[in-house]
Amino acid sequence: MVIRVLVADDQAVVRTGFVALLNTQQDIEVVAEAEDGTGAVRLAAELRPDLALLDIRMPGMNGIEAAREIVAASGGATRALMLTTFGLDAYVYEALAAGASGFLLKDATFPELLHGVRVVARGHALLAPEITQRLIGEFARQRISCPPDRSVDGLTAREVEVLVLIARGLSNADIAARLSITDHTVKTHINRLFAKMGLRDRAQAVILAYELGLVVAGAPGRGGQG
Question: For the HTH luxR-type domain, which residue ranges apply (predicted)?
Answer without folding.
Answer: 148-213
